[in-house]
Design brief:
The complex is a heterodimer of chains A (444) and B (480). With 444 residues, chain A is an alpha/beta fold. Chain A has 2 domains: 66-75 and 344-442, Aspartate Aminotransferase, domain 1; 80-337, Type I PLP-dependent aspartate aminotransferase-like (Major domain) (Aspartate Aminotransferase, domain 2). Chain A contains 14 helices and 15 strands. Chain A has helices at residues 8-18, 47-59, 80-86, 89-92, 104-121, 133-148, 161-170, 190-196, 219-227, 247-250, 312-315, 328-365, 390-399, 429-443, and strands spanning 66-67, 125-130, 152-156, 177-181, 201-208, 231-236, 254-258, 274-278, 290-295, 301-306, 371-372, 381-385, 402-403, 406-407, 418-422. In chain A, helix 3 (80-86) runs antiparallel to helix 12 (328-365) and helix 12 crosses helix 14. Chain B is an alpha/beta fold and 480 residues long. Chain B is built from 16 helices and 12 strands. The longest helix of chain B is centred in the C-terminal third of the chain and has 37 residues, at 326-362. The chains are: A alpha/beta (444), B alpha/beta (480). At the A-B interface, helix 1, helix 2, helix 3, helix 4 and helix 5 of A face helix 1, helix 2, helix 3, helix 4 and helix 5 of B.
Chain lengths: 444, 480
């Protein structure tokens, strides 16, 4: 039987020490009434057979299509060093670092991760605990509600709609009111948001670049937020953050991001990484595990989990959140990714992605009936309007080997012809050319 | 050890993802950041050496015995990593099945989801599962949200959730975050007694969160009576599946009458913890809660094709952007296929065998507050030794010097000086014996050389760390 090492002799010896006759005697407290009514699981397979079965299932997924899908989740190149280093058993098979002296590897890595993401986002503090970019936004709004003791949340409609529906689910049983400010032809409506802020406002939630790819400077908006004593929260895209004005420079109180684009494969939706950063003023509201630097009894530098008095294992129902994992391996991947590419490599990935998107936008809008929907500056993603329903165009192109993008009509009424298109440094100019030709053909 | 930032040399080039360095001309200057980011500039070898050295300053299951009570640190087989790394899975974009007709492009992945849900349902006797929750505690929150949706739908006025004092700290936190008042029920002789429960149970109770075996490693033998009591006030019973490793094939929580269960796939189904995450915390429900499960849900059509259905009007909505931590439950799926029903039962039997063996071996040397047959873990107490100045924490550090990861200490909170040991089924008898011998030897030092314990560890890269200073000084980044 796989993974159980005891021989029959050893089992007998162990039973003798315990003082029972059989293994079944150990389960005597489970009475007949509580025994399973069924346990009809398949027979176990050999390792070879499991791999063959899964290989066949993997082959049923069409991963050979050239894809321009983004919508917040991007296919950036991951250096081979990321897998090689993060798969090391000492990292991979460790637990949450409760015994710091035996976990300095994990702890220092988290500390370095905290340093890297705070620099990337221009913020002061970070954790390494949150599941994904959406739950990070939810945790950020709960921080604001705790901090301000207010209940109104102002949200831009140009914030990822997947995240907006998540926020709705999580707060359904809480006394929280959402005010959603509509987008303006794909632009974040900064004036509209500013007007919505009042003295009941707990938090303002915006995204940069927004869901349509539009880039903004929210400095004035965040100033207005601060004046109303509300908490400003921005969801950022970490790769582009190598180029763009940071949440910190804009004066944000909390900045979150989906960390997937920093070295995590798309993997059909997870595991991903919720990047969560804030100002020092907000740090005691921040959920999850935080690593701090300290010294040992010989005055050598070391690292420990810190500020634990906020956490569920100590505070139980009074904790800042119920988060118990620390998403450490995903954070480690993001850190190694940033280190392997380095300052210049990560900037290069961002710049090339932006350039490819602009080339792509130019090629697509040269087609009759295709217009830019995204107004103003954009990064590596943009939206166009097609002369036909985008769902239909996507279905046609997908059958021909191209996944052209995300249909905005799925979440935005009135934008049924809208197509959201993303490029990364992996998108070649040749692919863009063929894609444009294909789309032209499909629209005829 | 120096940080990677200390090792950075401005201008040194790392691994470039692509050729070309496009201009920034596409974005107006006033939207660009000022100055450098401050990420490391290091060669690939610098980076490889740095992280290899860091890894060597860590204990993991591959290198050390990790008997962490309540955490189920069993060996993680390697073949599941091969599965999770298959490009047919890693390259799949999560919004692909949401495009018209594109469900056909990810039939394999949808089948994995469908099959995994069914297998977990059979293991636990539940009607249906969602794989969306991304960790155990996330599953708890999802479960309490399901509880709330059920009562709302029935027009029930419920404000309270009961949590035993032996519960994981996440239980009360999850209930509170979902909007409930938390009521504690005290254990009697280590388990929940119907009498103690009766004192706190009334019509306003929405549900009760149970762990069985509980965090003392004891089986909650009053379960059938507890279920009957809760049913009378239309309260739901929630099962914290963190300890499922103790009961596979021996008890199905659905058959006993639980309505909601979350599983920690990374514990019971052997996917690596990665230093604390990512995990996966699927939630199973009984028939009456099925309409409230999160969307989307995967379905098998009559023609054998799989599809996602978002049309469930009573659903609690999205708890995750997509379908949960696919890469993690893929490993659990492969693990279940490998072991089958017989293998899972065998895992449980051997986990319980190992725990009882260690309990017996240690019972002459440590106080065992509930010294009777336990399940897959047990709690010892260093209270007698603490009177002589050697605490549970000192034993933990002493064990680190011997090359074992320490057991969980000071938990559960209801046992003073708790040392909570969970050996799991994958450790051989020699390892169990060595650990017991070492711990007994440490106990002997309490009278002869207590400093050897209170000054431990001495064999690791750092000696005992000053946690108070860390909280006060708050050095959270490398910028000072």
């Amino acid at each position: 039987m796989p993974f159980v090492p005891h021989t029959e002799n050893e089992v007998r010896e162990m039973l003798a020490v315990i003082g029972v006759d059989s293994v079944e005697d150990l389960f005597a407290e489970i009475t007949e009434e509580m025994r399973p009514k069924s346990f009809e699981l398949p027979e176990g397979l050999s390792e070879m057979d499991v791999l063959a079965k899964l290989e066949a299932m993997a082959a049923k997924n069409a991963t050979d299509r050239t894809s321009f899908l983004g919508a917040g989740f991007y296919d950036h190149y991951i250096p081979a060093a990321v897998d090689a280093l993060t798969m090391r058993g000492e990292f991979y098979t460790a637990y949450t670092p409760y015994q710091p002296e035996a976990s300095q590897g994990t702890l220092q890595a988290i500390f370095e991760y905290q340093t890297a993401v705070t620099r990337l986002l221009g913020m002061e503090c970070a954790n390494a605990s949150v599941y994904d970019g959406g739950t990070a936004l939810y945790e950020a709004l709960m921080m604001a509600v705790r901090k301000t003791k207010r209940r109104k949340i102002i949200v831009s409609e140009a914030l990822n709609p997947i995240y907006r529906v998540m926020l709705g689910s999580y707060t359904r049983n809480l006394d929280i009111e959402f005010v959603t400010v509509p987008h303006k032809e794909g632009r974040t409506d900064i004036d509209g948001l500013k007007k919505a802020i009042d003295t009941d406002t707990a938090a303002l939630l915006v995204q940069n670049p927004n869901f349509f790819g539009s880039i903004n400077d929210f400095t004035d908006l965040f100033t207005a937020c601060r004046e109303a004593k509300a908490v400003s929260i921005v969801s950022a895209y970490p790769v582009l953050q190598t180029l763009l004005k940071t949440p910190g420079e804009m004066g944000a109180d909390v900045a979150v991001a989906e960390g997937q684009s920093l070295g995590l494969p798309l993997s059909f939706g997870g595991p991903y990484l919720g990047i969560m950063t804030c100002t020092k003023k907000m740090v005691r509201q921040m959920p999850g595990r935080i690593v701090g630097r300290t010294v040992d009894s010989n005055d050598r530098t070391g690292y420990v989990l810190t500020l634990q008095a906020r956490e569920q294992h100590i505070r139980r129902q009074k904790a800042t959140s119920n988060i118990c994992s620390n998403q450490s391996l995903c954070a480690l991947r993001a850190l190694v990714h940033m280190c392997a590419l380095g300052e210049l490599g990560l900037k290069r990935a961002a710049r090339v992605s932006v350039e490819r998107a602009h080339i792509c936008a130019e090629r697509l809008t040269a087609i009759d009936g295709v217009d830019m929907l995204t107004r103003g500056p954009f990064g590596n993603e943009f939206a166009v309007t097609l002369p036909v329903n985008a769902f239909e165009a996507i279905a046609k192109l997908t059958a021909r080997g191209f996944v052209p993008g995300f249909p905005l009509g799925r979440y935005y009424e009135g934008l049924e012809n809208g197509l959201l298109v993303a490029c990364t440094e992996k998108t070649s100019e040749e692919q863009i050319g063929i894609f444009a030709e294909m789309l032209k053909g499909a629209l005829k | 050890m120096k940080t990677i930032f200390d090792k950075s040399v401005a201008g040194r080039e790392g691994c470039w993802p692509c050729e070309g360095m496009a201009e920034e001309a596409y974005i107006p200057k006033d939207l660009l950041r000022d100055g450098d980011i401050g990420l490391p500039s290091a060669s690939e070898l610098d980076v490889v050496r740095h992280f290899t050295k860091l890894s060597q300053r860590n204990f993991g299951v591959d290198g050390n015995f990790y008997p962490l009570g309540s955490c189920t640190m069993k060996y993680n087989p390697k073949f599941t990593e091969v599965v999770a790394a298959m490009p047919g899975f890693t390259r799949l974009h999560p919004v692909l099945p949401q495009l018209q007709g594109a469900g056909g492009l990810c039939q394999g992945a949808l089948e994995v989801m469908y099959e995994t849900e069914n297998l977990l349902a059979e293991v636990t006797g539940m009607a249906a599962y969602t794989l969306h929750p991304m960790a155990g505690a996330h599953g708890e929150l999802t479960g309490v949200m399901l509880m709330a949706a059920y009562h709302k739908d029935r027009g029930n006025k419920k404000t309270k959730v009961i949590v035993p004092d032996s519960a994981h700290g996440t239980n009360p936190a999850s209930a509170a975050i979902a909007g409930y008042d938390v009521v504690s029920v005290e254990s009697v002789d280590g388990i929940v007694s119907p009498e103690a429960l009766a004192e706190v149970l009334d019509d306003e109770v929405a549900g009760m969160m149970m762990t069985c075996p509980n965090t003392l490693g004891l089986f909650e033998k009053n379960l059938p009576e507890i279920v009957r009591m809760l049913r009378k006030v239309d309260a739901l019973l929630y099962y914290d599946g963190a300890n499922l490793n103790a009961v596979m094939g021996k008890m199905r929580v659905g058959d006993v009458g639980f309505d909601i269960v979350h599983l920690n796939l990374h514990k019971t189904f052997a996917t690596p913890h990665g230093g604390g995450g990512p995990g996966s915390g699927p939630v199973g429900v009984s028939e009456r809660l099925v309409p409230f499960l999160p969307i989307s849900r995967v379905e098998k059509r009559e023609d054998g094709q799989f599809r996602l259905n978002y049309n469930y009007p009573k659903s609690i909505g999205y708890v995750a952007p997509f379908y949960g931590n696919f890469g993690v439950y893929l490993k659990a799926y492969a693990y279940i296929l490998r072991l089958g029903g017989t293998g899972l039962t065998r895992a449980t039997e051997n986990a319980v065998l190992a725990a009882n063996y260690m309990r017996k071996r240690l019972s002459d040397h440590f106080e065992i507050p509930y010294d009777r047959i336990c399940m897959h873990e047990f709690v010892a107490s260093a209270a007698p030794q603490a009177k002589k100045g050697v605490h549970a924490l000192d034993f933990a550090k002493g064990l680190l010097d011997k090359g074992h990861h320490a057991p969980t200490v000071y938990f559960p909170l209801i046992v003073p000086e708790a040392i909570m040991i969970e050996p799991t089924e994958t450790e051989n008898k020699k390892t169990l014996d060595t650990f017991c011998d070492d711990l007994i030897e440490l106990a002997g030092l309490v009278d002869t050389n207590p400093e050897a314990l209170t000054s431990a560890p001495v064999t690791l890269p750092v000696t005992r760390l000053d946690e108070t200073r860390a909280a006060r000084a708050m050095e959270l980044t490398d910028d000072l």
